[in-house]
Amino acid sequence: MDAWGVDERYLDSAKVEHAISAESIAAVRELIGSVPDDLERTAPLVVVRGRPLALSGTVFLEDGSEQPLQPGPLTLPPGYHQLRGPDGATRQLVVSPGRCCRPSRRAWGWAVQLYASRSRTSWGIGNLADLRTVNEWASERGAGFLLVNPLHASGLTAPLEASPYSPTTRRYRSPLYLSVADLPGADRVDLAAAAGTARALNDDPAIDRDAVWRVLRPVLEQLFTVSGSDPDFLSWRHQQGRSLQQWATWSALVDAHGPSWRDWPGQLRRPDSAEVARFADDHGDGVGFHAWLQYHLSRQLDGAVRAGTVIQDLPIGFHPSGADAWVWQDVLAFDASVGAPPDPFNLAGQDWGLPPFVPWKLRRAGYAPFIESIRATMAAGGGLRIDHVAGLFRLWWIPTQLDATQGAYVRYPAEDLVNLVALESERAGAVVVGEDLGTVEDVVRDTMADAGMLSYRLLWFEEDEPRNWPVEAMAAVTTHDLPTVAGLWSGVDLRDQQAHGVPADEASTRQLRDRLTDLAGIGAAVAPPDAVVGAYRALAQAPCTLLTATLEDALAVEIRPNIPGTTDRANWSRALPVSIEELAGSAMAAAVADVLTAAVGYGRDVAEEDERVEHRAQLLPEERTATSDDPETQAEIILADSDARTEDPEGTMRDSHQTPQ
Question: Of 47, 134, 249, 278, whose Cβ has the fewest other Cβ atoms within 10 Å?
Answer without folding.
Answer: 278
